[in-house]
């Protein structure tokens, strides 16, 4: 599905998503090269909230750049199918072979600020990541491996532990908590209602 159509169809769950959706759509209409790093002010990225089959654990990686446990994901790098990007990044960053989307629709969206930093000997100026998140599922028994140039650990966490593991307060408060609440609403509560 076309990313602009996906964004337009997405129903924000809070004010942050309302504002970020407007900004993403505005930039899509006014900026070029948003799917490559050629646009040094802003570009699209895709992240994944990877849950186990019982949906009570989430996969996190300890990212070297941010010195924190975080979700998995990366840059679009020319691919406008951001679900494909999210799945590819999860496999690359964790060595998981089998990852499946629980929906092909966007699960969450957020505009993220990235401070200027050095990467492989080059300075990358501060910029925005226009990030969409997909909900993926994987088998927690499948072996995991790190991707040494990006992360130093990969592991499964209980939902609350995943939030606590992060060193990034804004992500803990604004993103990971939101993802867990939405996960529980859509899967845990729905399952409970189906049983009744």
Automatic annotation (TrEMBL):
Pfam families in UniProt: NUDIX
CDD domains, sorted: NUDIX_Hydrolase
InterPro entries: NUDIX_hydrolase-like_dom_sf (IPR015797), NUDIX_hydrolase_dom (IPR000086)
Gene3D superfamilies assigned to the protein according to its UniProt record, in alphabetical order: Nucleoside Triphosphate Pyrophosphohydrolase (3.90.79.10)
Coiled coil regions in record: none
Residue ranges occupied by any Nudix hydrolase domain in the UniProt entry: 41-179
Similarity comment: family membership: Belongs to the Nudix hydrolase family.
Protein name according to UniProt: NUDIX domain-containing protein
């Amino acid at each position: 599905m076309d990313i602009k159509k996906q964004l337009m169809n997405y129903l924000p769950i809070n004010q942050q998503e309302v504002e970020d959706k407007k900004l993403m759509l505005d930039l899509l209409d006014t900026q070029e090269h948003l799917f490559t790093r050629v646009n040094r002010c802003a570009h699209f990225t895709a992240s994944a909230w990877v849950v186990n089959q019982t949906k009570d654990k989430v996969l996190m990686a300890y990212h070297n750049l941010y010195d924190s446990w975080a979700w998995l994901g990366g840059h679009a790098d020319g691919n406008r199918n951001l679900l494909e990007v999210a799945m590819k990044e999860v496999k690359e960053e964790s060595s998981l072979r089998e990852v499946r989307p629980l929906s092909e629709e966007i699960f969450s969206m957020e505009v993220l600020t990235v401070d200027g930093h050095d990467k492989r000997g080059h300075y990358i100026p501060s910029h925005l990541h226009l990030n969409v998140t997909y909900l993926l599922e994987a088998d927690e028994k499948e072996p995991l491996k790190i991707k040494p140039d990006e992360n130093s650990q990969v592991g499964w966490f209980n939902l609350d532990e995943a939030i606590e593991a992060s060193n990034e307060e804004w992500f803990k408060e604004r993103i990971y908590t939101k993802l867990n609440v939405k996960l529980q609403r859509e899967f845990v509560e729905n399952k409970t209602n189906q049983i009744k």
